[in-house]
Amino acid sequence: MSLGSLITQARKSAGLSIEDLSAATNIRGSLLREMEADSFSNCGGETYARGHIRNIATKLGVDPLIFIAAFEEEQMQVDRSMQDLLVEKGVMKEPQEARKVSWKVLATISVSSLFVVGLAQIIISNTSSLDIPEPIATASESASPTPSTSASEATPTEEATVSTGTGVELVIFAARGKSWLFVSDASGRTLFSGQIARGTTKTFSTEVSLNIKVGNAGGVDLTVNGKSVDPIGADGEVVSVSYGVDS
How far apart, in whole angstroms, are the C-alpha atoms of residue 124 and residue 143? Predict the structure, then answer.
């Protein structure tokens, strides 16, 4: 589901028309229609686009991180260094002194780092005896699943585990469709932020509690501490839930 579709779904779930949202956000109705059609070229640049997206998310009662993550994946080109990405996601603090390194060097380091991370993930996914590395702010999207013979159910194709403890375990299976997903622990640390493909299983564990936000609640099945839970929402619905040791 694209960012424009997420905005449309959230607006309709809130019972608002384009005109209602325009009045609430002071954003032109014509621009809102373009954004819901996944066109952000008339927002006035990346900074203004981000501001509009955060404003819209706030008025619709949606965590801005979900919309911003979708915007970054769909609209932005990867031309920043790994350190810039980590600072933006809140994983590390911004350096106090400006780095006196040319942008060409940073670009080379960024591409090299992304290659190393991708290679490591391939090795880890194919070697069950290796420990799962400490997660960074945004995990990579899993491989696309093999098409299923059933229209409503998908067969899991990959399981990635992110762990910061063993008190509570959450298994998320995108059984009926892909979904935007944001997972954090009790301390607010981001364990995953991105899209989970249909047919993909991801497992998270931590010591105290796990907080999740799902952009397509009807497309996923959850298992908490070994027990399947009831559906948390409908197709396209944005839902936030938390689970602890006693869940």
Answer: 14
Residue with tokens 């491989």: 143
State pTM to two decimals.
0.41
Identify any residues that bridge with 206 across adjacent strands, giving them in sequence order. Answer: 168
Separation CA 89–CA 69 (nearest Å): 10
Q: Which of the four pLDDT bands, split at 50, 70 and 90, describes residue 146?
A: very low
How far does CA 94 lie from the centroid of its chain? 22
Q: At the fourth CATH level, which superfamily is domain 3-75?
A: lambda repressor-like DNA-binding domains (1.10.260.40)
Cα(110)–Cα(77) distance, integer angstroms: 13
Q: What length does the chain have? A: 247
**Model pLDDT, residue 100:** 53
φ, ψ (nearest 5 deg) of residue 47: -65, -45
Other beta carbons within 10 angstroms of residue 237's beta carbon come to 16
Cα–Cα distance, 189 to 33 (Å, whole number): 34
> Would you kindly state where each structural domain of the chain is located, as residue ranges?
3-75, 78-130, 159-244
Within the chain, what is the greatest distance between any pair of CA atoms? Answer: 56
